[in-house]
Specification:
It is a multi-pass membrane protein. This protein is 73% helix and 0% strand. The protein has 249 residues and is mainly alpha-helical.
């Protein structure tokens, strides 16, 4: 959990959320968005804990291998979701639902984002504990912090917020990876101090990507998920190379 390249994108959390939405669409096609949210949250939490257990079971010597494991796991889950969508003729519905797109946000749908407010408050309350947990298990235990408990709380919050975003606007790849890392470069790893800056930079980055997506092919529009994916991939590669260089030194 000390790896800065682990995020909902590189841990497969978004793919698990998509699979949960697909399952709800297959078995409960007429139900409201709350059912989709429940399935997305359950599978996001379960998939994220599976990733963590795999990381704990497989000891990596290189910092890069951990996000690669998550990406491979996410690819497997995404392939399974695609297979199920093909078998149930829901490919188009799933594609329209899950591609990051602000155009699909309507009244009665975006309100579920309000559920993330208590989770954000909880994150701020436990921010110092998360900072200590990020220093390692032994260090946390020496300071009297229950490492496993704090990690589980963090995973629950991350997976739930990811599911909320995916259900509301679709996938926004690399957002939870590049923004915290950029803030960390300039503000350090003190989570409580970095949280407000992370929130503001994330909002600015999303708005900038949305504006670019609307300008490039005006009067048409590129989905914000694609725009963020392009920018995010470039920034992620830069951070990855920089992080590997620092890790090697």
């Amino acid at each position: 959990m000390q790896n800065k390249f682990v995020s909902p994108t590189t841990a497969g959390t978004m793919e698990w959320a998509k699979l949960g939405i697909l399952i709800s669409m297959i078995f409960f096609p007429q139900e409201n968005i709350i059912i989709k949210l429940i399935f997305a949250v359950i599978l996001s939490i379960g998939g994220t804990f599976l990733f963590v257990k795999l990381v704990q079971y497989i000891r990596f010597t290189d910092v890069i291998f951990i996000p690669l494991l998550g990406i491979m796991l996410g690819g497997i889950v995404s392939s399974l979701a695609t297979f199920l969508a093909l078998r149930t003729n829901t490919v188009q519905s799933v594609g329209n639902w899950l591609n990051g797109n602000f155009a699909i946000i309507t009244s009665g749908k975006y309100e579920i984002l309000y559920l993330s407010i208590p989770l954000l408050i909880l994150t701020y309350i436990f921010a110092n504990h998360f900072t200590i947990a990020g220093m390692g298990k032994d260090f946390s235990n020496n300071l009297g912090v229950n490492y496993e408990k704090i990690i589980n709380i963090g995973l629950f919050i991350t997976a739930t917020i990811t599911a909320l975003v995916v259900v509301t606007v679709g996938t926004l790849p690399f957002l939870g990876l590049i923004v915290p890392n950029i803030v960390s470069i300039f503000r350090g790893d003190h989570l409580k101090q970095a949280l407000p800056h992370t929130a503001m930079l994330g909002a600015v980055f999303v708005m900038f990507s949305d504006i670019i997506g609307r300008i490039v092919v005006y009067p048409y529009e590129i989905n914000i998920g694609l725009t963020i994916g392009v920018f995010g991939t470039i920034i992620f590669l830069i951070l990855l190379m920089k992080g590997r260089h620092n890790y090697a030194n």
